[in-house]
Amino acid sequence: MWLPNNKKITELGRVQNKWNIAGLSVVQLQILIWCGVAMVVFFSTIAEDPLSQTLIYTLINTSFYAIIIYGNILWLYPRFYERGKTAQYVIFSAVYVVAFALGRGYLAVGIYNRYFAKQPEEVSAGLIIAFIAGGCLDFLMSLVFRVALAYFKLKKQSEEILLQKSKAELNLLKAQLQPHFLFNTLNNIYYEIYTEAPRSADLIGQLSEIMRYFVDESPKDQVPLSAEISFLENYIALESIRLPYGADIKIDKQLSADFQVPPMLLMTLAENIFKHGIDKGNPNNPVSIGLYDKEDWLYFETANPIADQPQTPHGIGLKNLRERLQILYDGRFELNCNAEGVVYKASLKIPLT
Fold it and tell me: Which of 65, 151, 202, 260 lies at a 20 to 30 A Cα distance from 38?
C-alpha cells in the first residue's frame, strides 16, 4: 500500500516554511488532523463490525484518503495545474481518483473475504461507484486543504514582513540615536571652545551641520534648495582650511524662490573642485560657483583652474551623477564638463517642475 514517505512529508513541511499555528507546526497539525479523521472512521464503524475488522478498515480508508489528498497536493497540482496544464491536470486527476478507488475497493473486499466473510463477496459496480464518489470528495477536500496551506503560508509571510519591519525600525532608531549623540557632543564642544577659539568653534558647527544634513536630509526625495546650498557652503568652508594658501572662492546665487531639489545633487561638481581642480602648492586658486534659475530650470555652474592632474569628465563621481540624473529626470537634464584652456568648467541644468 502506497503511503506518503518521509521525504514527501519533509518536502511539504519545507514548502510550508514550518508555519506555527497555536504553537504547532503544520506537520504536527496535519498529524492531529489525520488522527481525528482516523477516530471518526473508527467510531463510525465500530458499532457494526468487530474491533479487529474496524481497525483494519480504519487504516485502509484513512490511508487512501491521505494518498488522494497528498497525491494531489504534492504531485498533480504542482506538476500540471501550476504549470498551466489544466487539461492534463483534469485528465490525470480523474484517472488518479478512479485508479485508487478501484484499488481501495478490491483491497477492502479481498481482506474482508479472506479474514472476515462467511461467504465471499464480489466487487460490485455499486461499491466501486461509491468508492469513486468518496475519492472525488477526498480530491475536493485536497483542494480546500491546498487553499488552506496557501493561506497559512501568506499569513506567515505577512508576520515575517511585520517582524522584519519592526527590526528595521529598531535598527533605524539605533542608527539615529548614535549620530544625534555625536551632534550633541559636537555642540557641547562648540560652546566650550567658542570663547577661546571662535574660528575653531565655527568649523565644529559647520561639521555638525554637514553630518546632520547627511543623516536627516539626504534620505529624503526632495529638500529645500536653501538647505542644499547651506550644505555646500559648509562643505566648501571645511575643505578650504586644508589648503595652505586658501582659495578665492566666489559663490553667486540668483534665485527667485526656495525650490525643492533632490538632496546631494550638486555635491559632485563641488567636490571635484577640491579633488582635482585646486593646486595646493599654488597661492592663486580662483574658483567661481554660480547658481540661478530661469524659466523653470535650475542652473549650477563651476569654474576652477586645472591642476597638475587635470580633471576628466569620465570619473566615477560624474558617472554616478549622470546615472542618478537619468533616473530622476529621464533625459530632461544637461551635464557638461569641459576643459577650456587652463580652466575647467562644469555645468548642470535640471528642471524645477
Answer: 151
List, in sequence order, the alpha helices (H) in the chain: 6-15, 26-45, 51-71, 86-111, 125-193, 198-212, 225-240, 267-272, 316-329
Which DSSP symbol is given to 234?
Answer: H
pLDDT in tens, 316-339: 788 889 999 998 998 899 999 988
- Structural domains of the chain ordered from first start: 6-166 (no CATH), 223-351 (3.30.565.10)
- Residue of 111, 113, 37 lying closest to 68 (CA atoms): 37
Residue with cell 548614535: 178
The per-residue pLDDT for 333 is 94
Nearest CA among 335, 260, 269 for reference residue 293: 260
* Residues in Cβ contact with 315 at an 8 Å cutoff, skipping those fewer than 6 apart: 272, 276
The residues of the chain scoring below 50 in pLDDT are 1-23, 177, 310-313
**SS in 3 state form for 291-345?**
EEEECCEEEEEEEEECCCCCCCCCCHHHHHHHHHHHHHHCCCCEEEEEEECCEEE
The sign one gets for the Cα dihedral 339, 285, 287, 226 is positive
